[in-house]
Amino acid sequence: MKAVRLHGYHQMPVVEEVAEPTVQGPLDVVVRVGGAGVCRTDLHIVEGQWAEAMGIALPYTLGHENAGWVHEAGSAVTSVRAGDTVILHPTPTCGLCRACRIGQDMHCADSAFPGLSRDGGMAAFLLTSERACVKLDPRTRPEDVAALADAGITAYHAVRKAIPLLHPGTTCVVIGAGGLGHIGIQCLAALTATRIVVVDRNPDALKLAEQLGAHAGVVADGRQVDAVKDLTDGRGAEVVLDFVAEQGAEQDGFAMTARAGSYYVIGYGGTVRIPTLDIISTERNLVGNIVGTYNDLAELMVLAQAGKVTLHTRTYPLEAAVDALRDLDAGRVRGRAILVP
Questions:
Q1: Which cofactors are required for activity (predicted)?
Q2: Are residues 135 and 215 in the same domain?
């Protein structure tokens, strides 16, 4: 089968032939990939940012946002069968450790992360586990939902955590209306009554944000912190969801956060520098976010199949994976890029 393989850091992957994966254990599932999301994390992988954390030997197959159809299932698999349409939680988990037992399965002590720690889904087939499979309506096109597997639940997970803080009369700032942010905006609109203010460099992204439920848009032109303060009578926002968190956005995000408010870091790549006095004197909170739980993904798919969360996508054939990565890096993708094998 064809797969998108990374042979070295700081160089683009190549599309080459590799052996198809097969079921090895009783709970294994092999999925025929119908859509694989292209994520900024893939660019960070190419840059070597995950090399030490994951320690994977090169070459390996990229792709951690995947949906498709069950091709083969292990002998003990009962919840899905061949032909079922599925979206895959990005981290197949053990179900036995404390994190899994308390519903924090993205922190599983014995999980894998296809596309980061082992071969991923930018290929014709992907090996995963039954615990990662969320069964979908058979009419669902995998290419339409694949990016919800990681970008979607990352955004949903952050919004879900912030819901108790977002009662009517509050303001939530969303930094970045791109691949993650445009999903977060829809989740906020579907689940809260907060006022949604979106900050982005691109006026077209702000137009899309308003179509998706944002109440106000702020162009990131150097005055964005002041503009948010003006919109909130000088207070700042009760919650800031930062889907960028690099190139200065991470400093803006904390500055936009009101006293006793919470700054959620979802994107990554930058460095937050805050005097500790500024944290304690204002009781502002910094909250980290990494993907989401299996239940987060299942709940998000309910919203998606009800039409309350939709992905704005641009599709590419698997052979054009490098083009998709370059378009994403250059800011030419509005929403999500999806590879279709």
A1: Zn(2+)
A2: no
Query: Torsions phi, psi of 53, nearest 5?
Result: -65, -40
Q: How many CA atoms lie within 13 A of 33 on its CB side?
A: 33
Structure tokens at 263: 């700054």
Please write the tens of the pLDDT for every residue from 233-291.
999 999 999 999 989 999 999 999 999 999 999 998 899 999 999 999 999 999 999 89
Is the same domain home to 146 and 170? no
In the prediction, which pLDDT does 179 show? Answer: 84
114 and 175 assigned to the same domain: no
Distance (Å, whole) CA 318 – CA 323: 10
- Domain range enclosing 200: 155-288
Does residue 137 share a domain with residue 212?
A: no
Mean pLDDT, the chain, whole residue set: 95
Instruction: Please report which residue ranges of the chain form alpha helices under DSSP H.
Output: 40-46, 51-54, 98-101, 142-145, 151-162, 181-191, 203-211, 224-231, 249-255, 276-282, 294-305, 321-329
- Max Cα–Cα distance, the chain, nearest Å: 61
Please tell me the predicted confidence (pLDDT) of residue 269: 86
How many domains are contained in the chain?
2
Tokens of 126: 């992907």
C-alpha 99/C-alpha 59 separation (Å) is 31
**One domain, residues 53 and 69:** yes
Rounded distance, CA 66 to CA 4, Å? 14
